[in-house]
Amino acid sequence: MRRSILSIAVNAGVFACFVCMIGTGMAMEYLLPSNGGQRAIWGLGRHGWISVHVGLVLLLLLLLAAYVGLHWNGLATVLRGRSREGPGTAIGLVIVLIGLIALAVAPVLSLE
Predict the structure, then answer these.
(1) Cβ atoms < 10 Å from Cβ of 78
(2) What 8-state DSSP symbol labels residue 41?
């Protein structure tokens, strides 16, 4: 498979996982009761949708690892500060990555 087709497939997979994660998260938050109710969507209750949501998260992490692998040379170039846009791009990318990591870790740190 050509690299560009693989990149398009990975990007589409990341987008699809992200959209589906939003959908399952919204369904669990607003449609499925957390107080032990028996409501179901497409035959799955809250715990079933949690399993689907977690599976999507794991698939997204796998696809993001593939994305980083496909774009490693470009990312390394930017992080080394050798991009055409200048060294400010590397600093901006590092700040964005730190912010994303903080958002990903925040729910785990807020568990009681």
Answers:
(1) 19
(2) B
